[in-house]
Amino acid sequence: MDKLDWKIIAELERDGRQSYADLGEQIGLSKSPCWSRVKNLEESGVIEGYAARVDPIAIGLAVQSFVEVQIRFDAHTDFEAAVLAHPAVVECHTTAGESDYLLKIFARSADHLDELLRHNLSKLPGVQRLKTVVCLKTIKRHGRLAEWARTTEGRASLPS
Fold it and tell me: Which domain holds residue 41?
């Protein structure tokens, strides 16, 4: 990837709905080469797709939680399949440490969260323990990866 590809990614992270002409104008390319570069980034898997950002509170999902999950050693495949099919789980990550997985879930209320944990997530294949952290306020939801990845060059600290 060259400097123009990084600019394209950063611009599309900022506004994924802009036209190729507008995108090209932002980065200094005409429409056709801009389109070609975007297609290459899509085909190579750098750009995974495009989606609307939905405010969970606006659609009635006011309680965001992170759930640490410990499962039986032999249950990973079944657990992952169940999580992939579960609509309340919006993210699932394998982790190192005490827990095997970290889930990000949304619920309508504290009662809904309790019901979800007790009668649903706790019954997923292999689950031995759930530990839930309820998010009180989201400070930053949609970070932009392109600028961070381009400027860190393997450093963990912020560029100076």
Answer: 3-51
35 plus 95 within the same structural domain:
no
Beta strands in the chain (DSSP E): 63-71, 89-94, 101-107, 127-135
Judge if 41 and 104 occupy the same domain: no
129 contact partners, CB below 8 Å, separation of at least 6? 69, 70
Contact indicator for 93, 101 with CB cutoff of 8 Å: yes
Token output for 71: 């499962």
Burial class (CB in 10 A: 0-12, 13-18, 19+), 100: buried
Asked whether residue 18 falls in the same domain as residue 46, the answer is yes
* pLDDT (tens digit per residue) in 41-83: 999 999 999 988 899 999 999 999 999 999 999 999 999 999 9
User: Nearest CA to 62 among 117, 19, 113?
Assistant: 113
What is the tens place of the pLDDT at every residue in 82-127? 999 999 999 999 999 999 999 999 999 999 999 999 999 999 999 9
- Position 160 pLDDT exceeds 70: no
